[in-house]
Amino acid sequence: MKILDRYILKAHAGTFFFAFVTILFVLMLSFLTKFLDRLLGKGLDIGIVIEMVMLQSAWMVGFAVPMAVLVSTVMSFGALTNSSELTVMRSGGISIYRLVAPVLVASLCLSLLVERFNNVLMPEANYRANVLLSDISRMKPGFGIDQNSFSDVIKGYSIMARKVDNKTGELFDVVLYDRERPDVSMVITAARGRIEFSSDYRSLILTLDDGEIHQLSLPGMEKYRKVLFARNRYVFEAAGYVFERSDANGRRRGGRELSATDLLAVGQELLSKADMSERSVDCGLNDLKGAVDLIRKNRGHESKALPVASPDRAVESADASLNEVATLIADIEKQRTEYRKYMVEYHKKYSLAFACVVFALVGAPLGVMARRGGFGVGAALSLLFFVMYWALMIGGEKIADRGLLSPAVSVWMPNVILSVTGLFMLFRLTRSVNASSR
Questions:
Q1: Do strands 224-237 and 170-178 pair parallel, antiparallel, or not at all (unpaired)?
Q2: Do residue 114 and residue 153 come from a single domain?
Q3: What is the β-pairing status of strands 170-178 and 157-164?
Q4: Please, which residues bridge with residue 176 across strands?
Q5: Domain end call among 343, 371, 390
Q6: Which of 38, 110, 309, 369 lies 20 to 30 A from 285 at CA?
Q7: Is 228 strand, coil or helix?
Q8: 98 within some domain
């Protein structure tokens, strides 16, 4: 490695580690602000709390590394330009491309490390974090109740609260669906509520205030009853709400908990199922066509060709074929949607890793352009481009989920757009230098 390369990389190294630690600290602080009050004061061992925080920090590392590359590249090239070192280097006949080359090589090596992290460490950390969160929710049922979403922390019921006070454990605007009684549809609403253990920890007590009970008999729905109450208390068995470690291999993994190889295998399986369903649809359509042809053939002269019941059987066969085809088409759409989601996660593992190279390519000309602004301008430009990248990534995911573009095109689109932008800025910067030197 030449002296120039070492000098440029040394100028980036300190800024990169400072930016990485700062970004990781901000992300960690945001997580702690949101979840720490739900973890502490719940009777959990401090080791479990630390483990949860450490496991959750995995996705933060994958997020912080590319952004730290962008910040360090912008700040380092800005500092070199502001101190006239970059001007002296270019006056000596060194092109801007030569100065950027060692940074791109280093960012490529970093991308390979991030790709390994995304494929090996992050899926396992995400999986274990979700398992641990499920174990904590089983121990502390109030922990598993999120605002404006139904949860099954009470066996046989679905409960939702519009607002949850994590400090006091109080619930507001509670809705409770009873799923245990097949002969009655019962919905319970209350202005306030609280869920807690009994003194002996054998029962789970749900106390509701200022509510209503709506009951509707099934399946005829001929009886309806409405009951108002000032306070009502429900007692459930607390079995299963003790903190126990779940079997690490006993839970099905989600898309973010799988490696790229596993995601690809699941995607191929979904495609195979979709192809089988499509072949079944073709057979169902042939059966439907045969049933319709039979109905048309025997219309008006049933008694001459077939018994009277034959047209009725043909209609029933057509209805059955139509229902089967509709079910198969719904299955195909579901399988295709799931396939696209898995493929989005597959390409993100590589796309986010390669973002290190993209941000190095964009950050170099940005740093030269922001030479007079100092740290504030450099940080602002870095944040602007990172927000732009993340908005394009989220938009690409939504487009891919709807099937408007392939997952590969949608996920890699932000990298392509920012790479073209970085190359264009480098080209304009080189032309402006050449023009000024004439």
A1: unpaired
A2: no
A3: antiparallel
A4: 159, 188
A5: 343
A6: 309
A7: strand
A8: yes
The strand pair at 184-197 and 203-217 is best described as: antiparallel
The residues, any chain, with a CB within 8 Å of residue 404's CB and separated by 6 or more, are none
12 assigned to some structural domain:
yes
Are residues 204 and 304 located together in one domain of the fold? no
- Structure confidence by residue, pLDDT tens digits, 334-383: 888 888 888 888 998 899 999 999 999 998 888 887 665 555 666 777 78
Q: Is there a single domain that holds both residue 203 and residue 97?
A: no
Distance CA 94, CA 173 (A): 68
Phi, psi of 277 (to 5 degrees): -65, -35
H helices of 117-225, in order, are 122-139
- Residue 177 pairs in a beta bridge with 158, 187
3-state secondary structure of 202: coil
My answer on whether 211 and 119 are in the same domain is no
Q: Are 408 and 351 in contact (CB under 8 A)?
A: no
Is 242 part of a structural domain of the chain? Answer: no
Q: In what order do the strands lie in the sheet with 224-237?
A: 157-164, 170-178, 184-197, 203-217, 224-237
Domain end, chosen from 316, 343, 370, is at 343
Please state the domain count of the chain. 3
Rg, the chain, Cα only? 31
**Helix spans in 40-181 (H):** 46-82, 85-91, 96-116, 122-139
Same domain, 265 and 359: no
The predicted-structure confidence for 139-185, as pLDDT tens digits, reads as follows 555 555 667 777 766 767 788 888 877 666 688 888 888 877 777 78
DSSP structure class, residue 121: I
Q: Which domain holds residue 330?
A: 258-343
Q: List the one residue out of 348, 335, 349 whose CA is nearest residue 407.
A: 348
Task: Please state, in angstroms and rounded to a whole number, the distance separating the CA atoms of residues 84 and 346.
Answer: 44
Reply yes or no: is the peptide bond before residue 219 cis, omega within 30 of 0.
yes
Q: Check whether residue 23 and residue 135 sit in a common domain.
A: yes
Residues 161 and 126 in one domain: no
CA pseudo-torsion sign 81, 86, 91, 97: negative
**Are 165 and 134 members of one domain?**
no
Give domain status of residue 283, yes or no: yes
- 143 alpha carbon, distance to own chain's centre: 21
